[in-house]
Design goal:
This protein is an alpha+beta fold. The protein has a single domain, classed as Glutaredoxin (3-Layer(aba) Sandwich), CATH 3.40.30. Helices cover about 40% and strands about 15% of the residues. It contains seven helices and four strands, in the order E-H-E-H-H-H-H-H-H-E-E. A four-stranded mixed sheet has the order 2-1-3-4. It is globular. The N and C termini lie close together (about 10 Å). About 20% of the residues are buried.
Length: about 110
């Protein structure tokens, strides 16, 4: 079963859920704020998604970070930031089991099959 990583009050995450529901695709929801992010889960995601693409630089969490945390980013620093602040993970993030898709725009899930 697919897993959709979200933050419940995110409009784009709601649209992604609506798209999956409309297609009748089964999935479970993992709320990053409530459920957090384990090191094993983060490594599972980063094995399929480039590290620098996984961080959401448009999020409120990012904007509220101290400037020194935003400077000189490398893979290790991004991992540490994501572990400390799971809401920095770009979302919605859909793990189908075969692939991981980051973000959502209308039509992004049209090719998915249940």
């Amino acid at each position: 079963m697919a897993t959709l990583f979200v933050i419940k009050n995110c409009d784009t995450c709601r649209k992604a859920r609506q798209a999956l529901d409309a297609k009748g695709l089964p999935y479970q929801v993992h709320d990053l704020r409530e459920d957090g992010l384990s090191a094993a889960l983060l490594e599972h995601i980063l094995a399929r998604v480039p590290v620098m693409e996984a961080i959401n630089r448009r999020s409120t969490t990012w904007r509220n970070l101290p400037e020194e945390d935003k400077q000189d980013l490398d893979a290790n620093k991004v991992r540490a930031l994501l572990m400390a602040h799971p809401t920095l993970l770009k979302r919605p993030l859909l793990d189908t089991g075969d692939e991981i898709r980051i973000g959502y725009r209308d039509g992004d899930y049209d090719d998915l099959k249940g």
